[in-house]
């Protein structure tokens, strides 16, 4: 069971929907909902498009941030109050990714929304979510921007390749997979290897799932030729009517900027069901 569920607050269009989904998940697990408002502030004065922003403008920005702070807490308590879950609220000043990474380490999972290109503010940039995804040390449950979220995790698609990231995802998803009714284990482009080795690895995978009280996996393989791994994952989720994808987040930090792998970016851009990313 999940004990503490964090949700990202920034008053974007998807925020209320995100908080409601997180609150329902908290209710299902008898968990505490922790709202994290990460305030973005550049140290004044700063340059914008070649011009220094005046103190007056900075004062207006600070006032707007204070108003957003109050509004986000009120919205969190209003929406969460509909489910009766215990609520905590956290905030901070500085870079949003640093605040989110710090606060979510005291929680089991962070609920976020799919990046929205129509809202290009600092807290909506894919680079911020990438930084948190790769740097927080906790799984991120990302919700799609469209579609009804009737259930999350009743029928889960687990992406498995035996590598570190997928192993981390398989373990981090335990509180959700233990409550699932069905689990589909997807292997894409499996390597050619001796039959004895393949059978041993398959037996170990099934034994691990059984030890964690996961549903008996329905094992499938797919060939990504012509469509790519990301689209292969999305197609498999649709074909098997899954309401959750569990996968490792692949990426690295380059020049202090988080860079996601191609498959992770594809899923973030085109997801149609919630995705639990782990790194």
From TrEMBL:
It comes from the Bacteria. InterPro entries: Universal_stress_UspA, UspA. SUPFAM superfamilies: Adenine nucleotide alpha hydrolases-like (SSF52402). Residues 154-277 form the UspA domain. CDD domains: USP-like. Belongs to the universal stress protein A family. This is Universal stress protein family protein. It comes from Pigmentiphaga humi.
């Amino acid at each position: 069971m999940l004990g503490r569920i964090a949700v990202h607050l920034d008053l974007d269009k998807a925020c209320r929907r995100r908080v409601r989904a997180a609150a329902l998940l908290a209710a299902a697990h008898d968990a505490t909902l922790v709202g994290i408002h990460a305030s973005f502030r550049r140290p004044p004065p700063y340059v914008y498009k070649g011009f220094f922003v005046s103190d007056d403008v900075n004062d207006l920005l600070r006032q707007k941030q204070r108003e957003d702070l109050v509004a986000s807490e009120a919205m969190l308590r209003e929406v969460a109050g509909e489910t009766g879950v215990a609520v905590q609220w956290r905030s901070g000043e500085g870079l949003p990714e640093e605040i989110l990474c710090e606060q979510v380490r005291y929680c089991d999972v962070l609920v976020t929304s799919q990046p929205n290109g129509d809202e290009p503010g600092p807290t909506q940039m894919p680079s911020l979510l990438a930084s948190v995804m790769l740097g927080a040390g906790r799984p991120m449950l990302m919700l799609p921007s469209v579609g009804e979220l009737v259930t999350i995790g009743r029928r889960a698609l687990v992406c498995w390749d035996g590598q570190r990231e997928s192993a981390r995802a398989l373990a981090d998803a335990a509180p959700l997979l233990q409550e699932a009714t069905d689990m589909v284990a997807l292997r894409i482009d499996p390597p050619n290897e001796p039959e004895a080795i393949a059978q041993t690895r398959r037996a170990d995978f099934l034994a691990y799932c059984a030890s964690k009280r996961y549903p008996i996996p329905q094992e499938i393989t797919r060939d990504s030729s012509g469509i790519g791994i990301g689209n292969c994952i999305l197609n498999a989720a649709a074909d098997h009517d899954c309401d959750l994808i569990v996968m490792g987040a692949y990426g690295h930090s380059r020049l202090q900027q988080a860079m996601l792998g191609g498959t992770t970016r594809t899923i973030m851009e085109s997801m149609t069901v919630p995705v639990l990313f782990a790194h």
